[in-house]
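Q: What structure does this chain adopt?
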Amino acid sequence: MDIDEGNVGDVSTPEPVPADLPEAGRLVLSEIGSWSDSQRSDFSLLLLKCLDKSALGVLHETTDRILRMDIVASLPYELAEHVLMMLDERDLCRCEMVSKHWRSVVSETDVWKQTFRRRLRTSPDWAELHYYMPLQMKEQELAYKARIRAYLRLKSGLEENWRNNNEQHRAVQCNGQGIYCLQYDNTKIVSGSRDNTIKEWDLQGNMKRQLEGHDGSVLCLQFDNDMDRIISGSSDSTVRVWKLSTGECTHVLRDHQQSVLHLRFNKNLLVSCSKDFTVIVWTINGDVIEKRQSLVSHRAAVNVVEFDERYIVSASGDRSIKVWDTNTGALVRNLVGHQRGIACLQYRGDFVVSGSSDKFIRVWNVHTGGCLRVLSGHEELVRCVRFNENFIVSGSYDTTVRVWDFKSGFLLHTLRGHTNRVFRVQFDAYKIVSSSQDDRIMIWNFHRPDQQSLLEE
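A:
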């Protein structure tokens, strides 16, 4: 005989009949199964009217247990844990208040731990917060629920500082005759200068090293720690590839005919744009970098380009933003609205944010080409712009850095510290870093020292 001990099958156990039930009652039970629902309901109501209040109370407790089904309690413990892991922090707190069993499933398992890790994995803001958390807090055995509360308090405090312009700033003097481009991470700032060099700085503003090789101003760059690579573009018309760890120049790409104004890369592709009106797409296969195709449609210098797996987005002095298919290079659509040449843009998710010589910033839907908002406030050309789900940060020839609410387009505040044209901005949850023709890098810090105590409450 085959026996499957893991499968009980669909077996129902009939309710036992009380031994002292009169014969008439037994007769009703034998017949009631053939009655309609309406007949059974009417008969039950007649029986209830015959009971006193104490008996009705007992019956109420019994029917209440039957009708009230605890979904979590009915599941195996491991499955209940898995279901609750799908919830966010606020809902988990509510679940802990439902019953002792729910509280035990939430607090005595890995639910809070996995929720914390999911946040770090899926939210760029949380990843930034995690890096800047004090080391002693990361190392101590702090409950994951308490960690989440600490992160939420810090995030809320930082957003309040951003909106209230509660910042402290300092300047790094670069001695590079003007800083055209920069990128930073948690340990360093890498800048490109008019003096033809790439410089690496620590976050305290101390220069660590200098890379030389370009014969013209370094106008754009990007580095990637995992790929151990810096790629830079210059007014000498070349793209240079460097080993980040050693500073060795490994490639010189000479396909552009004029200044290389901007570039972006990932592990598979490099896309560059130039004063020669073209966008060039390169394939990256380990240490081999080869030209795949040129995208030709702009009628003036292509000032900026960004891309992801769906689209390449380029902007030009011809007043147009062009959206290309990343895989085929086919032109998908034009975003038209700026009245003068476009100097900068960022493409992220479903949105493009652009800045122009017309002094306006525009927010676009990349899929439809529709302009969602127009931001007005800068007094001269908008040279650089970055955004996330909360803020837009822009820099201008008017020497200011401005912070805007992304959803409303409302100007939150104006940061004044540079004394000449602002060329680049980058920001994270804690700070804005900007560079300028005044040969300085400004670091605008929105993290107050007194907020540290909030993490340890």
